[in-house]
Amino acid sequence: xxxxxxxxxxxxxxxxxxxxxxxxxxxxxxxxxxxxxxxxxxxxxxxxxxxxxxxxxxxxxxxxxxxxxxxxxxxxxxxxxxxxxxxxxxxxxxxxxxxxxxxxxxxxxxxxxxxxxxxxxxxxxxxxxxxxxxxxxxxxxx
Length: 142
Ligand SMILES: [Cu+2]
Known about the structure:
alpha+beta; Immunoglobulin-like; 5-stranded mixed sheet; 4-stranded mixed sheet; binds copper (II) ion; Cytochrome oxidase subunit II copper A binding domain-containing protein; CcO_II-like_C; EfeO_Cupredoxin; cytochrome-c oxidase activity
């Protein structure tokens, strides 16, 4: 076998190896979002402002955390501890979730996030600025 033949054979092996590696070699990571069991620990919080002269007081209740992200099809558990405010009526209309959250108590709700989208988590007692809100969070189902 001539040295030229050996060189061509080595070159062919290298090209073949590169071609094979491009097919079977490491791939870019594939992001797969799969349904799962997801539990969130939440509290009822309150933002408050009082002017220096004490004449103006502004309060706004909040869910904390206020944005929850889950894969579609997940079984979601919310455990909500009532801290600020005596009563909050939780509603996630899209998933027929409704519950009362009382100060000093933990309220647990469970549901399956069956459809994708962005769904408001509303407190029916504090739904807007006029009612010490908006106490609205967002459930993002991907
Ligand atoms: Cu509320």
